[in-house]
Amino acid sequence: MHRRSRSGCFTCRLRRKKCDEGKPQCRACKHLGLKCEYKRPMWWSNNEQRKQQKELIKTIIKRTKLSEKTTQMGPMSADTPPGLSHSLPTSATYSDMTARTRAVSVDSQYSLEYEFNQQPMHEHFDAYQPQVLTPQFELHQQYQQFPPAPYEVDIKTERQMYVNDVPTRRDSSISTFSTFIPPPPHATLASLHEENWAQEDLYDSPGDHFSGEEGLDFNFFDFSHGPPHNPQQAVIQVEDCDRSLLDHFIDNVLRLIFPILEVNQHGSARSEVVLPALESNKCYLHCCLSISAIHLKSTQRLQSEQIDSDIMRHRYATISELCAALNRDTDHQQILEATLGMIFFQCSVGRPDDCLPDIPWHQHFQAASSLVRKLELPHAMVQVNSAQIHPPFNMTLASWIDILGATMLGRAPQFANTYRDKHLTASTSGLCELMGCEDRMMYLISEIACLEALKIDKTIDESSLCTHITCLGTQMDLTEPGPGALMDAYSPTGAIRPKQLSKNMTAMFRLAARIYLCSLVPGATRYDPSMIDLISRLAATLEYIPSGPEGFDRSLVWPLLIGGSLSTPSSTFRHLFAERITRLGEQAEFGSFGRMSVPMKMVNGSGDSEIAGYNAKIDELREAEYPMLKGATYLDHAGTTLYPKSLIDEFSKDMLANLLGNPHSASLSSQLSSRRIENVRLRVLRLLNAEPEHFDVIFVANATAGIKMVMEAFRDHENGFWYGYHRDAHTSLVGVREAAVERWCFESDQEVEEYLTGEHDKQGTGKTTRLGLLAYPAQSNMNGRRLPLAWSPRLRSSRSAEHQDMYTLLDAAALLSTSPLDFGDHSKTPDFTVLSFYKIFGFPDLGALIVRKESGHLLRSRKYFGGGTVEMVSCVKEQWHVRKEESLHERMEDGTLPIHSIIALDNALSVHARMFDSLQRIASHTSSLARRLYDGLRAMRHSNGNTVCEIYKDPCSSYEDALTQGPVIAFNLRNSQGAWVSNTEVEKLAAIRNIHLRSGGLCNPGGIASSLGLAPWEMKRNLSAGQRCGSENDVMGGKPTGVVRVSLGAMSNMQDVTTFLEFMDEFFVEHRTMEQRESEASLLHPEFYVESLTIYPIKSCGGWSIPPDKSWEVKPEGLAWDREWCLVHQGTRAALSQKRYPRMALIRPSIDLDNDLLRVRYYGQTQPSAPAEITVPLSADPRVYSDHEDSGRQPYPSKVCGDSIIARTYASEAISTFFTTILGTACTLARFPPSDLGKSTRHSKAHLQPYQTRLRRNPTTPTDPHPRSSSPNNNPTPPWRPILLSNESPILTISRSSLNRLNEQIKLSAGKACSADVFRANIILAEDPRSPPGIEQPYIEDSWRYLRVGPHTYFQMLGAYAEV
């Protein structure tokens, strides 16, 4: 890399080239024909003009180079084809390495009529799209010092004219495309480092590379046409009528065939795979021309007989040539090459609705398979076990088609034994290099296809099938990479990293293979938790694959097909798939991707139909089973769901038909009760897919009682216990901390992750040798987000010393109301799980504690015992007892069990399964409803565009994914001006419409505090101000104190969603136009308008004008932030005034609401080292004051206008120094904020002047048209108004007309007119400028009785200025 010029001509400086500083022109500029400028040109100082000059220089250089190349080539004759030449990279061929083409393609295919679980019967022609790692060629030694750059390759196309079979004319043309293949060593190149200035700009640092990874050596494959040769010598003969098709194929179709290979070695696949075959293989040429015609027809939407004729003519010619070659029994490699092309190239072109006749791809492949065997390619592939033997390219391509095609046909692959041998010897077949998915993963997909074929043929029993599925799953586990393998496929420079892309694509194929394998399990459905988890992981992995027209979605047809066909209607995968189709644009309609999207849309449509059908079933159930819902909209299923009529009927019949006694007795009725209870206990375990040998069920009153039982056992251990709980925990989980010796609240998922990995460095998480308990909810009862269930097994398997003797407690009450919980693998479950059955079934009011038996011994330390839990108790003379040991539940269930509630639970389990099928079905139904409700609330806007709902959704959750989000929505409402709407008002209006929801703190203190941004000091302030659970003080200090929650359940339907959205739109969405609002505002006085609003945050300092388009809060004390601060003397504590300290006029504060700051700037002269501005937090956080509760200091009284107040001074030394330096006296900033209850220790002192009393006895203004309790009355005695640091009243208002009249009178007395700023008014009212002259009304405000701000806030007009 040459040193760039700093003193040469400005042209070389712009090109960042070394300049020899020759006069009048440097040598470089002279050679390239550029203008050499040593005087600073005009374009140098303007960035935009510099860019234009760069482009101009690029164009000149390109023209110069092309001219030189043309001169070197010499004249061409019609009979002699021109020699192929290389041209250097120019601005036209290479300007930005991130802007190069990344062609998209597909990787598998099937027909329009394809059904996932049956063999396709179709006539359309399909195949599989390649996915290949892009090769990088090793540059010749003399060029290795330069970064790789594209070269232009000229493809000569010859045309031969015949008349009566006699050649009469032969001419040729050249098509040019770019390639990264270097020229041969003997090629003549211009001085690359001197003239390729664009390249040098791109690769400024020595560490920059084109791909950032070692590329593929293209000699890796054994080609049927021999080793790679010089592509510049390609000569392709076509008839005149087919020239345009060949050009189109070379220019537009070739780049689609091997997309990943194109990324790594631009043009290599074309020049080394396709072009040689086009030269030597006539069958292959006709195949490519047919493909070109199909692509031309699809992309340009041609509908003509000519294009169809071209397609069919070349298709027929291909088949004819193949048949002729087969009859000759020669050229088998060329026949195979053409046959594979007929299958493979179809993946990139054509639309699903193309109805031209064709031979199905699998029939073509039968012929290809025969040729593969005849050429003994499988044997050659098996021999590929060292670097010296290369895999046959045609065999690699055939293997890809064979393996994925077998999964579509339900058959075993043709060469399955070959793949099995390759898998056992761990040798490559070139599949990864060709298509991007690791070879061993493809071998395993072949094994799964074999297993499916056995299942379809019914030649394997279920037991053996499950054994093979387990073995294959284990084999796939061995292919899993380590953590962190999935990464962005783009390098920091924006280039694709081929190896990382291959890893990401392999991960997609691996997950799709797992889904494919799980689908073979007898009885497997898309609703199985394991299937849902795999689909979710597939969607997450898909995010690592670049999308869009230059992405690689079309290379993932097989994984997308497998995942989409087994996804649930509410899965994230379907939503993401639809998004990526949108990003792909028109290219999503072509080739295998287009053919795959057709059945996928059918599957998605069937999912919508399934949802609609299930919703219709729920409508029928509601009519018959839930009569209490008639006319009601119930949206509080997170509190409790509703019980059906059948449950109450069956429970009543059960109670009347059976005699049930106390299970602690030995009577027949008691034995019946005992048997029924144990049966129910077993049914509860089955609900969770839990085995009785690993789990026990302890019946309790509810989930809270189960939590308390665990807490008592841990508390009674000798050394107590350490307790950690998640921020989203229910109050019942939080309360356990009071019994713990040590406790810690994890404020985020990230903190839990850091704790599990041993990276958490905060104090309090370090557990000593005592027992530990980590507790968290499976689903937040506040906003419905679902937390990771994997924390429990991860903590159990941790080898960290800190995690020994650690156990987990899961609150599953909220989750189980609408989602299943699978305890099939006891090693991955929590130690203790609590649940409430009334949240699942509505009745009975009963709960359970599910205990993992391996952890059950911990409960034995619980000291309390009740009736039925002991074998013997001694009370007289000796005090001892013996616990029951036969089972854990006998030891822990105190007293007589709630027999009738447990019997009711038996009925509830039966009725629930009969009505709703399964919890998974409920999960899918409620997830779909929640998504539509969430979308509806999120889309609501006021007429000014402001949002209506502030929805509290965790960033890690999505309403598209039932694994991360439950059917619960927590939100608050804002009006059109952004002010909070009272939740109490929402609840009252909802009650009028018979809508049942919940608002408030929801027994989730951590979730509420984090969502609403409530700091502990703010919660203490709210408590002092009177906030209590259930109180109506739901907006305090400018923040809500709770939320509104709506939640859906099994019997919710679409009408519930629609009704609630209509209710929200009717009452809380403001549809009024701006004109209507202005008309309402003009009722105050039609001739007047507000000219300006000004506040004076710091008493006696400068004012700050509120921006005209900014809404501002009005409080009882006046405008928000007005005269809330003052400067007090540090000795006397008296407030400073501008009269004594005139420099205060140069102190001008402003309010920065975006950053929650009071900014104070001094506009006078300051010392060089002194700051001109300081910032003060607007927050009322007590920690910023010198008298906060931890300081031990008491607040000092101060004097303001003769009143004694308690103002809180700031503790910051920087604040005190700033003001002391400016004013030259020891002072500091103090704050006198409005009190929490809206009261103040200062009140207004203004009173009516005598002339005002006269005017108001004979008012000229009408009486209040809207009398209300809060409006002023006719009593002239002013009310006691709370004020902050203003002199007399909350708001000072002046009239522009009055000021103008005053200035006229001052001028008559030869005085100087005064501005409105002199009066330090908050509101300046002006008369409508459109009013005719001469009708101004100066001093009209003297007759006004009150001023109304908004619909409900009134200020009585007091203390107006006296007449002059």
TrEMBL record:
Its cofactor is pyridoxal 5'-phosphate. Its EC number is 2.8.1.9. The active site is at residue 1003. Keywords: Molybdenum cofactor biosynthesis, Nucleus, Pyridoxal phosphate, Transferase. PROSITE patterns: MOSC, ZN2_CY6_FUNGAL_1, ZN2_CY6_FUNGAL_2. Residues 8-38 form the Zn(2)-C6 fungal-type domain. Gene3D superfamilies: Aspartate Aminotransferase, domain 1 (3.90.1150.10), Type I PLP-dependent aspartate aminotransferase-like (Major domain) (3.40.640.10), Zn(2)-C6 fungal-type DNA-binding domain (4.10.240.10). Residues 1261-1364 form the MOSC domain. GO terms for biological process: Mo-molybdopterin cofactor biosynthetic process. CDD domains: GAL4. Residues 68-88, 1234-1282 are annotated as: Disordered. Pfam families: Aminotran_5, Fungal_trans_2, MOSC, MOSC_N, Zn_clus. The keyword Ubl conjugation does not apply. The modification N6-(pyridoxal phosphate)lysine is found at residue 839. GO terms for molecular function: DNA-binding transcription factor activity, RNA polymerase II-specific; lyase activity; molybdenum cofactor sulfurtransferase activity; molybdenum ion binding; pyridoxal phosphate binding; zinc ion binding. SMART domains: GAL4. It catalyses: Mo-molybdopterin + L-cysteine + AH2 = thio-Mo-molybdopterin + L-alanine + A + H2O. Sulfurates the molybdenum cofactor. Sulfation of molybdenum is essential for xanthine dehydrogenase (XDH) and aldehyde oxidase (ADO) enzymes in which molybdenum cofactor is liganded by 1 oxygen and 1 sulfur atom in active form. Belongs to the class-V pyridoxal-phosphate-dependent aminotransferase family. MOCOS subfamily. This is Molybdenum cofactor sulfurase.
